[in-house]
Specification:
Blueprint: H1 13-27, E1 31-35, H2 42-57, E2 60-64, H3 68-85, E3 91-93, H4 111-123, H5 128-134, H6 142-154, H7 159-166, H8 172-181, E4 185-188, H9 190-194, H10 196-206, E5 213-217, H11 223-230, E6 233-236, H12 237-249, H13 253-274, E7 279-281, H14 284-295, H15 299-313, H16 321-332, E8 339-347, E9 353-361, H17 365-374, E10 377-382, H18 388-395, E11 402-406, E12 416-421, H19 433-447, E13 454-458, H20 461-467, E14 478-481, H21 488-500, E15 506-511, E16 529-533, H22 542-555, H23 558-575, E17 586-591, H24 598-601, E18 611-612, H25 616-625
């Protein structure tokens, strides 16, 4: 066996177990689902053996992650491997295409809108950045070749560094893609591999095949929902009205009239399917018939006319509402199995009512299963992959070729206190003022027993707002509140202010599943205690019921896979903000009696060893002052 390309002197003990399991999976063309806690060194433990196999067997390695920060960690790990082993691993790092684009204001476009805008410029030979790479005859230009040679010599680079080096003259995404042709490791987003049409184009550009590729999927607990989102589509009568106005601006009067008729048809759909209901299921042919009746055209012909018009519109506009309608009409006629179709009344933030029609993917395995089975080996890893069989089933891992492994935390177990308080609940039928007072009193007692910073994560903004009035004047810490309408910059400022309060002690109020409960590090004194209030169960709407029904039909696990386990993943992610390093000491409190119930309890990592107690504040105080 060739020497392991590892960035450090030697692996830590538990990290060594993960490395051995990754090596075994790759060697035997198997797959691995690895619940590997924070601090284990997952990136080095997976990239090391994967890269070793890439050199030995000629494989390509795809490191897929939804977070830009994790791209940087992967790049830094590969730099260390290069330095330690005196080799030159070729790496390409690609983030979403629009984030690597040199044109202005493209960040305002959706991914689909940007892709159409980009395609139109390229095909019309109107993009100077693309032309600088390939010229007007699709031949690689000398300046681009020289830059690629320089970047290869510099070694692994993050996408932002490639953008900085290329963007004034060249399309940095194309430069990164060209680097990918000779790269042993490609760092990319889930979208590049799990969106079927994008995957085909992406792999073709890189001249790589899944059958000769190792996939490392980071933050794998996000993948089922992400793939479902990628394969889902929705439209509103508001979008259709915007499309009608757009058509009129471009003198497409016949289409504008047809789109106005289609908008009116949504009123008929509301009368026929909603009446006094907020939502209902709708069949494929029922909407098709309504469209044909409204516009007086064959459904397919109308969709084709819209798409042709959108192509013309995009020649002078970055986005097209007409194109959005065309795309939805095309997707709507897709498969029935593994999808649901729902019509729903909604309200905008300004209070305006509108109708939404959605085509929802229920089975991520439709795309991910095909990818995983075709790959040489797929490694799915996260600190929140309990229970592993759910991710195996939902993502389509072949049961006879997939290993499920749970690794203990590398941190001293005595440094983390995990408690379940069983006398409170946010269960819908128990929500009342008395219960909110009990929750507030427990939270206040806990927060006041914690030195430095504490965070309370609620199941929703509604519950948070309901409890907050009863916390007033009971907390001896400065309170920071994550509100639903904060933008990215405001949340960053809020987080920094919370961190700066650590010496005196601050209290952060946020929601499970929000940006403050995932993807942020609060080590040491920045967060000493995380209180998880209630189980963030999804609203029992038709989309959730459809998931439950489908997972019941396919796996006989509908309630678990479609309702309980996804909520527990959000709860565990929030709890995981605490104890981020080997020197950290912290407490995690689950405040709801349901956390002690079997189906919920099994989702808590086994090495956390939670204790059920009514004396939470006393246990917390003793833990921090012992």
């Amino acid at each position: 066996m060739p020497q392991l390309l590892f960035p450090f002197d030697k692996p830590r003990e538990i990290q060594g177990e993960l490395i051995a399991d990754v090596q075994n999976a790759i060697q035997n063309k198997r797959h691995l689902i690895a619940h590997a806690p924070t601090g284990l060194g997952k990136t080095a433990a997976t990239l090391g053996p994967a890269l070793t196999a890439a050199f030995d067997k000629g494989y390509s390695v795809f490191f897929l992650t939804p977070k830009h920060a994790q791209h940087q960690i992967a790049v830094e790990t590969l730099r260390k491997i290069n330095e330690r082993h005196k080799i030159n691993v070729q790496v390409a790092d690609l983030i979403g295409k629009k984030w690597m684009c040199s044109h202005t204001a493209v960040d305002k476009l959706t991914s689909k809108e940007f892709n159409e805008f980009c395609k139109n410029l390229r095909e019309g030979e109107k993009c100077p950045f693309y032309n600088a790479v390939f010229g007007k005859k699709s031949q690689l230009q000398g300046g681009a070749m020289q830059l690629i040679s320089e970047l290869k010599a510099r070694g692994p680079m993050h996408a932002e560094e490639i953008f900085s080096a290329a963007s004034e003259t060249f399309c940095s995404y194309e430069i990164a893609s060209l680097l990918g042709k000779d790269a042993q490791v490609v760092i990319a987003d889930y979208y590049h591999i799990f969106q079927p049409s994008v995957r085909q184009y992406f792999l073709g550009r890189l001249r790589k095949e899944l059958k000769n590729s190792i996939l490392i999927i980071d933050e794998g607990h996000n993948l089922p929902n992400r793939v479902r989102d990628i394969l889902s589509e929705k439209i509103t009568n508001f979008i259709i009205k915007r499309a009608a106005k757009e058509a009129r601006v471009f003198y497409l009067d016949d289409l504008a009239v047809a789109l106005n008729y289609l908008s009116d048809a949504f009123d008929n759909l509301e009368k026929d399917f909603l009446r006094n209901e907020n939502e209902n299921r709708i069949k494929k042919e029922e909407f098709v018939k309504e469209v044909e009746t409204a516009v007086g055209l064959d459904y397919g012909s109308f969709a084709s006319d819209l798409e042709s018009a959108a192509v013309e519109i995009r020649k002078s506009a970055k986005k097209s509402f007409v194109g959005s309608v065309a795309e939805f009409l095309d997707k709507w006629t897709g498969d029935d199995i593994g999808f649901s179709r729902i019509i729903k009344k909604r309200s905008s933030k300004s209070g305006n009512k509108y109708i939404e029609l959605s085509y929802n993917c229920l089975s991520p395995a439709i795309s991910s299963g095909e990818v995983i089975k075709e790959s040489a080996s797929t490694i799915l890893m996260s600190g929140t992959l309990v229970p592993g069989e759910m991710y195996r089933d939902l993502l389509g891992f072949p049961q006879d070729k997939t290993d499920l492994k749970t690794y203990p935390s590398p941190f001293p177990p005595q440094n983390r206190l995990v408690l379940i308080e069983p006398s409170t609940t946010t269960k819908f039928t128990s929500r009342n003022t008395s219960e909110y007072v009990k929750i507030a009193n427990e939270c206040a007692a806990i927060a006041n027993s914690v030195p430095n910073n504490c965070a309370i994560f609620f199941p929703s903004y509604y519950i948070m707002q309901s409890v907050m009035p009863f916390l007033e004047n009971k907390i001896g810490k400065q309170i920071f509140v994550d509100k639903s309408d904060l933008n990215k910059q405001q949340r960053t400022e809020l987080l920094n202010s919370f961190k700066n309060s650590a010496q005196k002690g601050g209290l952060l109020l946020a929601v499970q599943g929000g940006s403050m409960s995932e993807g942020i590090d609060l080590p040491g004194e920045f967060l000493k205690c995380a209180v998880v209030v209630g189980v963030p169960l999804a609203s029992p709407d038709l989309a959730t019921k459809s998931l439950i029904d489908f997972y019941d039909y396919k796996y006989n696990r509908g309630w678990d896979y479609g309702y309980i386990y996804p909520a527990m993943t959000r709860a565990i992610q929030a709890a995981g903000r605490c104890v981020r390093g080997p020197e950290d000491r912290g407490a995690v409190i689950f405040l709801d009696k349901r956390f002690a119930w079997g189906n919920y309890l099994k989702c808590i990592p086994p090495d956390w060893k939670p204790i059920v107690t009514m004396l939470v504040a006393d246990r917390v105080k003793k833990f921090f002052h012992s």
